[in-house]
Amino acid sequence: MFKMKTNFIKWMFLPFLSGMILMSCEKEIETIVPKIEVSSSSITISRLGLNDEGNTSTIDVESNVYWRATVQQEGEWLEIFPKAGTGSVTIELTAKLNDDAERRATILLETLDGTKSQIQIIQSSKDETIYYHFEDFGTESISNIDVNFFDQWTKKGIGSLFTKYTGLHSAAVDNNNSAAGYEGASGGNNILFPSAESALIWGQVDTKGVEYFTLSFGAYSSNTLNSSDLKLYISKNNEEWIPLNYTRGTNSGWGLVKSNFKVSDLSSMHFKVVSKKEGLRIDDIVLLEDPNKQGEEIVFQTIVDDGMPVGYVYYQEDFSWITEETFGGTAANFPTNELGFTNANITPAQKDTINKYGWTQELGSTYLRVGLMKLSKTKVSGDLISPPFSAIAPFKAINVQVSFDVAMYASASGTLDLDGITIEVRNGGTINSQALTSYTTDVDFWLRTGEEQTEPMKTITATIYGATSRTQFRIRSAVENSEQNRLNKSNRFFFDNFKVTKAPNE
């Protein structure tokens, strides 16, 4: 009986054992085929190391096995993360700024059994033009559409991902287009400002950490276009607007507006164009990085008042310390007997006197005259830099008015020098707007050499916004040496009676 039971259990166990053996064999037979799939086999990145949208470039990897990645490249300009993985993984590419020719690298993904996948990375050369914002308003024929309801925006560029448009009494139209009105004109649609105070606002446009930009767009007027007819503004928050200087001829028809500027520590910008007369149009907005790093610096000021009353005098200089006894010469014989700051003939006592009053220069060609300064010489520019406005309390930022007397130089025979001076502010503050650190103006007043001065020079005033105890004033020739030589004329002038007073904090 016991033996029968044993046999019965044995026969019951055999099918189970057979199944286990079969299952084991099936598992041994099953094999995994390594697979690595990538979102792209070739990626082009800009010279900044970004993709077309201005973001970090990435590669999506799908794999069923573990892989490791290596970068084959000349030099160390491309980094990737992560460098290994399995399943669904996104690899981020970090490329250094390219200031040379186009360069290439290969990312090699390889499994333990030797399965490989390659991605070719191409970085554009230093000559690549990168659009931060490009808008031609489309080419599809339209009727007169209010800007706020227009939906054919082109909106390209690495800073334009979040750009939106709003308008005030402005419309997208397809008539009277730009055609060949300027280089790069697209034709197609444009924005019409049918009345004065019409406006177009666009932003945000991301800076991607860049500071220097060139903004351009086509502008149309049926007659002469003056600078007062079209206003351009910039903002960091779409609330506080600062004027932007621009250039454009006064001709009627289409012409290109261009503005070069610098912004610091700004992640994004907004822009506004306002017409001051009816019938103006704009087209083809283009925002590029300026490789020449030129233009006015835009500074968004914060005022911290020092409690002094309006009109309070922080600094004044009439150059009365420049006397015949100390420096020689007379008021009637300028510009002879000139002694410049760096002239080897200056005596130690004269140099000590100059240093005591703290005025300096960078360009040279700045001379001491009796009771005043003379800047520049024959076809060579000169400049003069004031001491810091140290009478302003530390850690305060206020608005001040600067005033000074100035006159352009005329020869004894009556030949007039080129008109124009440039005024700058340094180390804190902006001048004559809450945006610009320099501006150029004509003087329209000349003093004739060899004659004693019988009438006062012209007084010029300017407002410095956000001046601090470190702020300095600079005045210089407005015409470059090359232009003076081309015209065979000089750009000399006289400077006197400089004064800095408290202005309203408005």
Would you write up a description of this structure?
It is a single chain. With 506 residues, this protein is mostly beta strands. 10% of the residues lie in helices and 41% in strands. The chain has 4 helices and 33 strands. The N and C termini lie far apart (114 Å). 33% of the residues are buried.
Topology:
Blueprint: H1 2-29, E1 36-38, E2 42-45, E3 58-73, E4 78-81, E5 84-95, E6 103-111, E7 116-123, E8 131-135, E9 145-146, E10 164-168, E11 171-173, E12 190-193, E13 199-206, E14 212-221, E15 230-235, E16 242-243, E17 253-263, E18 268-275, E19 280-289, E20 296-298, E21 313-317, H2 324-327, E22 339-340, H3 348-357, E23 366-369, E24 372-375, E25 383-385, E26 398-410, E27 421-426, E28 430-431, E29 438-441, E30 446-448, E31 458-467, E32 472-477, H4 481-487, E33 493-502
Parallel strand pairs: 2-7, 17-20, 26-30
Antiparallel strand pairs: 1-3, 3-5, 3-6, 4-5, 6-7, 8-19, 9-11, 10-13, 11-12, 12-19, 13-18, 14-17, 14-19, 15-16, 15-18, 21-33, 22-23, 23-24, 24-33, 25-32, 26-31, 26-33, 27-29, 27-32, 28-31
Distance N to C terminus = 114 Å
Low-confidence stretches: 1-18, 330-340
The radius of gyration computed from the alpha-carbon positions, rounded to a whole number of angstroms, is 35 Å
Q: Count up the helices.
A: 4
* Mean pLDDT rating: 86
**Sheet with the most strands, sense and barrel status:** 9 strands, mixed
- Write down the overall geometry: globular
Helix content: under 10%
Beta-strand residue fraction: 35-45%
Structural class from helices and strands?
mainly beta
Number of strands: 33
Oligomer type: single chain
